[in-house]
Amino acid sequence: MAKDMTLLWGSGSPPCWRVVIALEEKNLQGYNQKLLDFSKGEHKSPEVMAMNPRGQLPAFKHKDFVLNESYGACMYLENQFKSQGNKLIPDCPAEQAMMYQRMFEGLTLHQKMVDVIYYTYKVPEGERHDCAVKRNKEALTAEIKLWEGYLQKGSGSFLAGKTFSLADVVVYPGVAYFFRFGLCEERYPKLAAYYNSLKNRPSIKASWPPTWLEGQGQDTLKDV
To answer: Buried (b) or exposed (e) across 146-165, using 16+ Cβ within 10 A?
Structure first.
C-alpha cells in the first residue's frame, strides 16, 4: 500500500510537514521518500520538476496519481484510507463544518506569515518599503490574535473541537513555524498551549523537522 507512494519533501516546510503528518496518522509508513535540501536548490531538480513543474515541495505520488498541493494530498489520504489509522474527518456535522472552515482559514494564516518572514527574500531590495513591512506585520498580528481567540472560545483541545482532525494536520505545522521564528508564548498563551500539547503526539513527534532538531530557531516574530 505505502510502497506505491513517493514523497519528495524538505525539512521545516509546513506544506511538506502536513503530508508527512497525514501519512503517519493513517499508519502509512514505509513509503518511498527523499529528503531534499532547499539551500542547495534540490527542489528544482529534474526529479522534482517531473512531478511538480513549479519546482516546489512537497511532490507526492500514489500509484499514477500526483498530488503536489499539500491540502489535496492530506484530504486524498484520509478519503482513500478511511478505515486505516486515525479518523481525521469528524462525523458530527458541526465539527466537520468547523474542520473545513479552520483548514482553509489556515491558508490565510500561512500566507500572512510568509509575507513577514520572507519579505526580504521575496521582494527585491529596490522595491522594499518600511511601510509594507509594517503593514504586513500588523496584518499578521491581527490574524494571530484571531486564532488565539478561536482557541480561547473553542469547545475542545483541537481546532475543530474535541478530536484531532485534518484541520490540525494542516494548520499545526504553521503554528509550530511561528514559535520556531520567535513568536512570544506569553503573548499568545492559548496558541502556545495548543502548540505544546501536540508536540508529543506520535505523528508529530515522528515527523518533527530534522533540521529543527539540529539547531536553534530565529527571532523574526518576537515583536508580533
So the answer is: ebbebbeebeeebbbbebbb
- In 3D, which of 90, 81, 96, 74 has the Cα closest to residue 21? 74
Q: By CB neighbour count within 10 A (0-12 exposed, 13-18 middle, 19+ buried), where does 17 fall?
A: buried
Phi-psi region of 17 (alpha: psi -120 to 50; beta: other; left: phi over 0): alpha
State how far the Cα of 17 lies from the Cα of 70, in Å rounded to an integer: 9
CA distance 132 to 134: 5
What phi-psi label fits residue 58: left (phi over 0), alpha (psi between -120 and 50 degrees) or beta?
A: beta
pLDDT tens digits, one per residue of 78-124: 999 999 999 999 999 999 999 999 999 999 999 999 999 988 878 88
Cα 181 to the center of its chain, rounded Å: 14
* Residue 5: other Cβ atoms inside 10 A: 20
